[in-house]
Amino acid sequence: MSRNYRRRQFVKMVGAAGAGAALAGTASGAPKVSTETLDEQFDTSGGVQEALVVFDDSESARRLETLDLPETYHVFENLDVAWTHLTADQLRTVAGWDSVRRVRKAEELEWHNDSTSRDSMAVDTVHNDLGYEGEDAHVVIIDSGLNASHPGIGADRVEANYRYVDEPTGPRAPFWVAAGRGDTDTVGHGQHCAGIAAGDGGGATQGSYEGMAPEATITSYAVVQYIYLPYVVAAWDHLLGRIRTEPDFDPDVVTNSYGVSRGARYNPNDPVNVATWKVFQEGVLPVFSYGNDGENGEGTGNRFAKAPHVLGVGAAEKTIDEQNNANNRPIVGFSSRGRSDVDPVHYDRDALISNLRQFFAIQEGRTYTVNERTFTGSVGAGANTDPVVAAPAFETDTGSSYEAFTTASNVDRVDLTLSLDPEGQWVRMRVYEKQGDEWVEVAQMREEVLKQHDTLTVDVEGSTDYTIELEPEDSVTADYTIEYTAYEQADGDLGDARPITLYRPGVSAHGNLVMSTQDKADVLGPLGEAGDAEPFYGRLSGTSMSCPGAAGIAMLVQQAYRDESGEELSPIDLIRVLEHAAADHNPNYNAINTGAGFVDAEAAVTTAEGLATGDLSISDLETGRDALVEPPTKVTPPDEIDLTAAGSRRTDSSVNGDSRTQRVEVTISDFNEQATGAVEVYDEIPSEWELYGEYSQARVVEEKNGRKRLRLFQSEGDDEVVTTDEVEGDKEVTFSYFVGTPENAGESGSYTLGPAEAEVTTWKVPENGDDRKQGSDTAEFGGSDTVIVAPTPA
Question: Which among 105, 121, 149 is the end of a domain?
């Protein structure tokens, strides 16, 4: 689809938390400033240490010049963060400045290290049936880099391939070099993640290994072999600058398969958290792996994935098993867990994001959004609606339409953004306030032709009734949309804006033995399990792999909404769609191991289409705490009912001469009546032996592998079967037949007769409502006899 506008300018905020979204929780008062500001990882008795300092604004960073710094400092261009070296005393000094929000230790972070995978997440259906493959979508990957010339990536889809160069506190400023079609990845981690999110499957020889959004374009930031926190912050800073200054750079998601798994709660002033919040505000969704420390128990989630504006992704198997749902997309043991020992509000993303907005509003001294909603309707002749409240101020014969709203108790201001279809119509918008028994006009907009979008800002009172009038001029007829946003002027203590930590992943996705793009010469190349059969692909495991999978699916969801509406889902609504659509596959799922459930691309894309066409609204979705997984009842495979049988056999003699006759008796005394009501009975003799059919209740029905299979009857020529009534209690049925031993003295030796076998005639199971299934339809019984044939003396 060709467009000439910048998508984020048209981000549709269709679903912020409703009025009165919970601010309550169990968190006690705000912790002491020293704990919040100075990172506990510093050695405050040690020497010079590398630090990232988060300021209120970049100008405040100049205060560092008043210190006798061991080395110079660097302030990032788009983040209010300085990178420097400080002594232990200087760390304490800087942490005490009023303009400093956080002093973070520069540290090394951890990597969170096919067609069945795509099927398990319903991606193939989205590709093949719904027709979305990520066209016009863009993913940013902050990782170890990628080889843009890999056949599964395709250099034409790599819009930028950056490598970080130089130390910012050295003699030159830091910068990013565009490597173009080059290979910026010597590890292989970023290469593998890129293929999962947006690989097209090129170069595969043994299977189909395309990624989630194989038509999407890619930007890669290579933060070198080990993922160092300052390099990560530098990548986010560069990314944010491009978003703000390059109209054609319009990413949908940023995928991040790294982090630190500690029990610490989310700190909004940590450098990476500051960066992800700013990018989130620009209309881009940050996606993080949840961590690989699940074997260590609860509280092991990635600290960056605890932010309520971030989609954290756990790892699950791709196994599809509806019959034994404990084995149906199970969570992998290494996937990090959230916490179960917290108030459930810590699982409510809607409440936490509302608190976080309040937190930043208080910290920055501005307003924050209380709630949003949308009004739709028509104005003009024949479209007149009665006023919501009858009053002399309202006329009913002008073609006007009316909408009503009541402000929440904490609301100070309301924005009303009016759009008309067709555009350019002349419609006047008035707002009336209920004052006692009267309606008083308090605001008016548009005494001239309306532009495409126009906003009326109204100062309002809390807990007060208001009515909007839309009055068309002349013979105007149009459909209208009013986007309503209510704000509160922030004040109070930051401790009031809590809790803000999300102690669960958002969703889980396939993260175990994922096949994706790989260069065998990279560090991780030998670990891929495809071997030489797939020179360009290999399997790796980790939430590192589930993260780009979910990010790729998020691009498909955004593409579906964009293609249907021409607009964008906001990042928070994109998360809401993914969580609403997530599947409850496994009885062992819970909030702390999978959040809302296992990602379902098909359900998410169809939900996005419904939102785009107006068939659904965000309020129709299960969001917040309602989005949490609801584990299904455990289902086990139906019992297999095997035929069983009991009986005995008797042969005249265990030693015999050649050309002698033997009488054989086979007795069946019982069989499993749950399986069948009747059985046929068979026996086996050696091929060298002869059945005397004229004297026997048997006939040969098959001969192979040196054995003759005999069908036994209760009387000569009788095709009857043995029924359950005939073996009830002490009853039994005996068959007899006669055989002759080999005539040739050279065929003397040991021979085996039997075992006898019962075979189902008609299965009883499954019967109506029976959850069992058919197992083996034959059962041996009676054992076997060994007969030695000795040559007859001359």
Answer: 105
Q: For residues 145 and 220, what is the distance between their CA atoms, to the nearest angstrom?
A: 6
From the list 349, 637, 644, the residue with the least C-alpha distance to 507 is 349
Indicate the SS3 state at residue 318: coil
59 CB burial (10 A radius; 0-12, 13-18, 19+):
exposed
| Among candidate residues 489, 512, 527, the one where a domain is terminated | 489
Beta strands in 574-619, from DSSP E residues, in sequence order = none
Please count the structural domains in the chain: 4
Q: Could you list the residue range(s) of the whole structural domain that residue 216 is in?
A: 111-361+498-627
Question: Looking at residue 376, which CATH number applies to its domain?
Answer: 2.60.120.380
Per-residue model confidence as pLDDT tens digits over 536-573: 888 888 788 999 999 999 999 999 999 999 999 999 99
Tally of CA atoms within 13 A in the half-sphere of 257 that contains its CB: 37
Give the separation between CA 542 and CA 548, rounded to whole angstroms: 11
Alpha helices by DSSP H, listed for 44-140, are 88-95, 115-120, 123-125
Task: Identify the H or E element spanning 570.
Answer: none
Residue 363 has pLDDT above 50, yes or no: yes
Phi-psi region of 474 (alpha: psi -120 to 50; beta: other; left: phi over 0): left
139 & 246 share domain: yes
Q: Are residues 190 and 324 in the same domain?
A: yes
Domain annotation covers residue 13: no
Confidence of residue 724 (pLDDT cuts 50, 70, 90): very high
Residue 571 is part of a domain; what is its CATH number?
3.40.50.200
Pick from 313, 242, 320: nearest CA to 284 = 242
